[in-house]
Amino acid sequence: MPLNIPDKLPAYDVLTGENIFVMTHSRAVHQDIRPLRIGLLNLMPLKIETEVHLLRLLSNTPLQVEIDLVHTATYRSTHTPESHLETFYTTFEEIKDKKYDGFIITGAPVEQMEFEDVAYWKELTEIMDWAKKHVTSTLYICWAAQAGLYYNYSVPKYPLDKKMFGIFSHTVTAPQVPLVRGFDDTFLAPHSRHTEIRKEDIQANPELVLVSESEEAGVFIVSTRSGRDIYVTGHVEYDPLTLKKEYLRDKNKGLEIEPPENYFPSGDETQHPVVRWRSHANLLFSNWLNYYVYQITPFHIEEIS
């Protein structure tokens, strides 16, 4: 089944060009089916690019998925056209009475700030509280994973000596968890962050399960025992050139930045990166939608509590 997205959303042309089955709202309303309702709180500055990254992964499922794009009201992005936000996005105030089968909160380039100093922190905490009674399962990505673990479980973040930047090998530490069903013994995923959460803090909380980790990149996937909250510290959604763009952006600004590790073939920046994380990224999102959303959520969405 297709991904159901708003009419004229720019991601439509990109995804159909990649032979991904998507359907506009105007066509979907003619199908007699109860789609999964997924909310996406997009905290990234380049919202259109992030939409493509995540919608690409959400499309790889036999389920019909309906997306609501959400942005913060307390902070307006300056990197995304206002017309795009007005046309395709809504605010928390406008959706707070709705129920969602699943909800995704993206990363944000604010990880070196204290959580409470982030302009939209109060609004974000309201959304995280709201999700506990209005969402079947919430997926937190990168900075949002750190923010969710901090707010919900008092798990601190720690600054790194240098940016965790590149493609790293991971292992599954809780193979019985459905989220990693079908995963290989080792698999690759991208990271791009200046801070970390630590294994001992996760293991000290009986409500949390360390699902996957990396010898180099540390904690990768954490789940609550109920599966209602999933925390992913990396960026499995990144496309082939995202790390390259981040590297060149910082390099051109004169910032101290090393090339992303294990990314350019033979370490040659002139070579096109080879994607080696796509299959597990798709599997992660498919497993989340199937085992933590579709298999759990009630048929009548208003019964979520």
Automatic annotation (TrEMBL):
Describe which pathway this protein belongs to, using the record's wording. Amino-acid biosynthesis; L-methionine biosynthesis via de novo pathway; O-acetyl-L-homoserine from L-homoserine: step 1/1
Provide a GO biological process annotation: L-methionine biosynthetic process from homoserine via O-succinyl-L-homoserine and cystathionine
Q: Which reaction does it catalyse?
A: L-homoserine + acetyl-CoA = O-acetyl-L-homoserine + CoA
Main localization category: cytoplasm
Binding residues for substrate, per the UniProt record? K163, S192, R249
InterPro entries membership: Class_I_gatase-like, HST_MetA, MetA_family
| Gene Ontology cellular component annotations, sorted alphabetically | cytoplasm
Active-site residues per Swiss-Prot or TrEMBL entry: C142 (acyl-thioester intermediate), H235 (proton acceptor), E237
Site (Important for acyl-CoA specificity) at E111
Q: Where in the cell is it found?
A: Cytoplasm
Q: Has keyword Acyltransferase?
A: yes
Question: EC number(s) per UniProt?
Answer: 2.3.1.31
Q: Which residues are listed under the site Important for substrate specificity? A: S192
Q: Which SUPFAM superfamilies match?
A: Class I glutamine amidotransferase-like
GO MF, one example: homoserine O-acetyltransferase activity
Name the HAMAP family for this protein. MetA_acyltransf
The text of the family note is: Belongs to the MetA family.
In terms of PANTHER family, this protein maps to: HOMOSERINE O-SUCCINYLTRANSFERASE
User: What does this protein's UniProt record list under function?
Assistant: Transfers an acetyl group from acetyl-CoA to L-homoserine, forming acetyl-L-homoserine.
UniProt protein name: Homoserine O-acetyltransferase
Organism of origin is Marispirochaeta aestuarii
